[in-house]
Amino acid sequence: MSFMLALPKISLHGAGAIGDMVKLVAGKQWGKALIVTDG
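Above: the chain sequence. Below: its structure as C-alpha coordinates.
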Protein backbone atom coordinates (compact mmCIF):
# COMPACT_ATOMS: atom_id res chain seq x y z
CA MET A 1 0.00 0.00 0.00
CA SER A 2 1.31 3.45 -0.81
CA PHE A 3 0.41 6.93 0.35
CA MET A 4 0.77 10.23 -1.43
CA LEU A 5 2.20 13.04 0.65
CA ALA A 6 1.65 16.53 -0.74
CA LEU A 7 3.82 19.17 0.89
CA PRO A 8 3.44 22.89 0.28
CA LYS A 9 6.88 24.14 -0.70
CA ILE A 10 8.26 27.14 1.14
CA SER A 11 11.94 27.97 0.78
CA LEU A 12 13.58 30.89 2.56
CA HIS A 13 17.25 31.78 2.16
CA GLY A 14 19.66 34.30 3.63
CA ALA A 15 20.14 36.17 6.88
CA GLY A 16 16.90 36.38 8.83
CA ALA A 17 15.34 33.34 7.13
CA ILE A 18 14.84 31.45 10.40
CA GLY A 19 13.13 34.44 12.02
CA ASP A 20 10.89 34.89 8.98
CA MET A 21 10.02 31.18 9.02
CA VAL A 22 8.84 31.44 12.64
CA LYS A 23 6.46 34.26 11.66
CA LEU A 24 5.26 32.38 8.58
CA VAL A 25 4.56 29.10 10.39
CA ALA A 26 2.84 30.89 13.30
CA GLY A 27 0.38 32.46 10.87
CA LYS A 28 -0.63 29.14 9.26
CA GLN A 29 -3.28 26.68 10.42
CA TRP A 30 -1.02 23.65 9.99
CA GLY A 31 -1.23 20.76 12.41
CA LYS A 32 2.43 19.88 11.85
CA ALA A 33 5.47 21.40 10.18
CA LEU A 34 8.85 19.99 9.12
CA ILE A 35 11.61 22.59 9.24
CA VAL A 36 15.08 21.62 7.96
CA THR A 37 18.12 23.83 8.48
CA ASP A 38 21.86 23.41 8.09
CA GLY A 39 22.70 25.67 11.00
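The first helix runs from residue 17 to 26.
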